Amino acid sequence: MIYQGNAITVARGDGDIATLTFDAQGESVNTLSSKTVAELGEAVAALQAESGLQGLILASGKEAFIVGADITEFHGLFDKGEDYLVEMNLKVHDIFNAIEDLPFPTVAAINGLALGGGCEVLLTADFRVMADSAKIGLPETQLGIVPGWGGCVRLPRLIGADNAIEWIAGGTQNRADVALKMGAVDAVVSNEELLAAARTLLDRANAGDLDIAPRRAEKKGPLKLNAIEQMMAFETAKGFVAGKAGPNYPAPVEAIRVIQKGAGEERARAQRIEAQSFAKLALSDVAFNLIGLFMNDQVVKKKAASYAKQADNVEQTAVLGAGIMGGGIAYQSASKGTPIIMKDIQGDAIELGLKEARKLFAKQIERKKLTVEQMAEKLSNIRPTLSYGDFGNVDLVVEAVVENPKVKGAVLAEVEEQVGESTILTSNTSTISISRLAQNLKRPENFCGMHFFNPVHRMPLVEVIRGEKTSDAAVAATVAYARAMGKTPIVVNDCPGFLVNRVLFPYFGGFSFLVEQGADFQRVDKVMEKFGWPMGPAYLLDVVGMDTAVHANEVMAEGFPERMARDSKTAIQVMFDDDRLGQKNAKGFYAYEEDKKGKPKKVSDETVYTLLQDVVGEKQEFSDDNIIARMMVPLCLETVRCLEDGIVDSPAEADMALIYGIGFPPFRGGALRYIDALGVAEFVKLADTLADELGPLYAPTEQLRQMAQTNARFYAAE
């Protein structure tokens, strides 16, 4: 044994070939934590001191190669400042350069995921052989940073600047066939053949069939681009990537700049440019929040996985109510491999549901994600019916009929008579109390909410709502099914609107106040979109549908009358009363036309201002900051209340639900992280100022006031 550490071993094998194996003891995956990087330095030093070696294989003892750096360390490391981060990265560069400069050929055997720092490790090797099931990539820009351990330097020299920009700016995970085509790897084989193929490459290099000298020279030297080629590669890319990333996500464009600045430099200078850029971005609020978001996502997924482990198998499901929503649920289930019965009492609704599913599968064919044969196979997982004939073998039912408590209650009681005693019933309701819907059920312990967001195939969140009598088994099965559908389930407790809608409607309340006090709704939309929302509140209301919004608002007003009930008519009610329902009938706050792809395109409609005259006071100009405060404070306060009331268990789950459910700007980290960023005391002061004018919707809770007094935070550990 040449070296033995906790995460790394180096052993000498036949033919004087050494194998450096990443296999962190007690961990399910390999990460490049600070301790592992230190061990890697020691292991490389041991290799340099070993005489007579003829080659090195970089390998992994886990299913994945290396999933990246240890992101849980990032906030603590980044707090140490820019100079520290530059020097830290340069020390890692020294270790990686030492691998690249070893006096014998090296090969990386990529058996599984190799991301971020894991991908940068394998780029140091002379050769790369990849299992056909593996993926590699540099996703750092998704965390608000750039690759800092050589990715911006080695990858462009390996696969060309244009390809490297696409990989790095896009943060993509790339399949083996793509990596081979690009030249990122030298061979693709089955996992069983991986080590043998790696050994063959070393033998060929030692026999003189493969020359490592020009490979190393190319990776260490400047990029081979003349001035015109550089301009074409970088300036065009910066414009395109900036347009896609938007102004709130600077890392993708910064990555292009790093590649561009280092293009004419030798390895050491290019790596320093990369290290300096990494350090600058690492100290930004965007990076802090996106890294926090990643860690929150891990919390949510870990919790969901824990629930799913306790669940009985969900092998056959059913959806009650076809149409667009039922068809979307059926598509999602069928596409992920869980057979589903789609039942309705109307043949037309069944056909509409099937049409929706077929349309979504057809889009997958257009994008080359499916073949026609695969589509046919997946579509066969949907069984349409007008009867309950086959419901005796169903493990879980999703009720998705009209949002009316009497109708839902009747349908749920009816289906309960048709299913087995252990079958789980769920309701896809956005507002109606689960405990209320359970009142007419014989087995309320087998019932919970399963709130999908529209459109089902795009929105990642599913709220799993626990009623007063819901059992752990029902929650576990529903979470397991949501995960099997490729969704992110978050378990919440029952209340009007549950979590996401309860938080969203105070945001709409803030919008109503603004419009009624003379703000231009189009200007409010523009300000909130600039703030980072995918669409402003008026546009969002049009997408949600004014009838849905009015109904949900009535539920909220009944549940929380002190702060959500309104005596006067709102702008939303005016739209509804004039049959301006939004996109569903092509007129709301905006009018809608079809674009070239047949999708609704919003256009200004001046008649709206005339309609709103009865509820709008004298026109006023509000500053951007005032608009943001009036919109965000009630949303954030309601999130705080949901946490305090036990509707949601943790800040991480609350923030992720808002990001996945309503498009809260990811780079801001979520509502509770947003309060932390402002400072709890400053937020309370701002809320109090607004509450004096606008009332209880803006009033801080007593617990929040106590947090302000003690300088507490929602994410205290950070």
TrEMBL record:
List each copy of the 3-hydroxyacyl-CoA dehydrogenase NAD binding domain by range.
Answer: 317-495
Reactions performed catalytically: a (3S)-3-hydroxyacyl-CoA + NAD(+) = a 3-oxoacyl-CoA + NADH + H(+)
Q: Which GO terms describe its molecular function?
A: 3-hydroxybutyryl-CoA epimerase activity; delta(3)-delta(2)-enoyl-CoA isomerase activity; enoyl-CoA hydratase activity; long-chain (3S)-3-hydroxyacyl-CoA dehydrogenase (NAD+) activity; NAD+ binding
| Record keywords | Fatty acid metabolism, Isomerase, Lipid degradation, Lipid metabolism, Lyase, Multifunctional enzyme, NAD, Oxidoreductase
Record-listed E.C. numbers:
4.2.1.17
Pathway field of the UniProt record reads:
Lipid metabolism; fatty acid beta-oxidation
Q: Which domain of life is it from?
A: Bacteria
- Mention any one GO cellular component term assigned to this protein in its UniProt record: fatty acid beta-oxidation multienzyme complex
Domain (3-hydroxyacyl-CoA dehydrogenase C-terminal): give its ranges.
Answer: 497-592
BP-aspect Gene Ontology terms: fatty acid beta-oxidation
Q: Which family does it belong to?
A: Belongs to the enoyl-CoA hydratase/isomerase family.
Q: Which NCBIfam families match?
A: FadB (TIGR02437), PRK11730.1 (NF008727)
Protein name in the entry: enoyl-CoA hydratase
The scientific name of the source species is: Vreelandella subglaciescola
The lineage is: Bacteria, Pseudomonadati, Pseudomonadota, Gammaproteobacteria, Oceanospirillales
